[in-house]
Amino acid sequence: MDVRLIEENLVRQNKATMLLLILLEEEFSRLGQLKPQSVSQIELSIQELMRQIVAERISLRKLIAAIAPEAQRVGELYPLMEEAVAKNCREMIKRLDETEQKCAIQAAKNNEMAMALFDQSKGLLDFMHNQIKPKNTSAYGRSGRFAQAPSNARLLSGRL
User: Fold this and answer.
1) Which of 4, 138, 19 lies closest to 84 in space, CA to CA?
2) How many CB atoms lie within 10 A of CB 92?
3) Burial of 67 per CB tally in 10 Å (0-12, 13-18, 19+)
4) DSSP secondary structure letters along 18-52
5) pLDDT surpasses 60 at 158
6) Within a 10 A sphere around the Cβ of 3, how many other Cβ atoms?
């Protein structure tokens, strides 16, 4: 029966989500160390691992449909499984869910850190830009030449 394949799929998903958690924690560490090159390398690994996890999920759904076409989840197959196998699957699904929750929390932390670093960098660039920008905005004309500002004496000379 294909129940063995379902167990193997759940084992692979558990290992993949544990690896994902480790990679997310490493990404957070590298974000804190301000190493953008290594962060992007980790991010590529995370994206590839996510793609593989999705492929495993699709494979699992196909396995479930092959055993019982009306079933949508592994839990619906428990009555068809031996008690020991069903118990093992329950434990793996529980562990998988717990690890996914940890991954979601870590991903949120990583996102928050990345956005904070982005805001900090943007603020610093804006500050530096404002420091080098000419204070007198009428110093240069549209042609890029020094603009001749009208003198206030014109009002005294009767010109408007």
Assistant:
1) 4
2) 18
3) middle
4) HHHHHHHHHHHHHHHTT-HHHHHHHHHHHHHHHHH
5) no
6) 17
Q: How far apart are CA 106 and CA 100, in angstroms?
A: 10
Polymer length of the chain: 160
Q: Report the candidate in 104, 110, 120 with the shortest Cα–Cα distance to residue 29.
A: 110
Q: Residue 70 has which token pair?
A: 């009306």
The confidence band for 140, taking pLDDT boundaries of 50, 70 and 90, is low
Contact in structure between 114 and 32 (CB atoms under 8 Å): no
Which of 69, 81, 79 is CA-nearest to residue 6? 81
9 contacts 56 by C-beta, under 8 angstroms: yes
Tokens of 157: 């000379």
Average pLDDT, the chain: 85
Q: What percent of the chain has pLDDT over 90?
A: 50
| Residue indicated by tokens 């499984």 | 81
Closest CA to 74 of 156, 160, 9: 9
Q: Tokens in use for 76? A: 């619906």
Is the Cα dihedral 37, 121, 126, 130 positive or negative?
negative
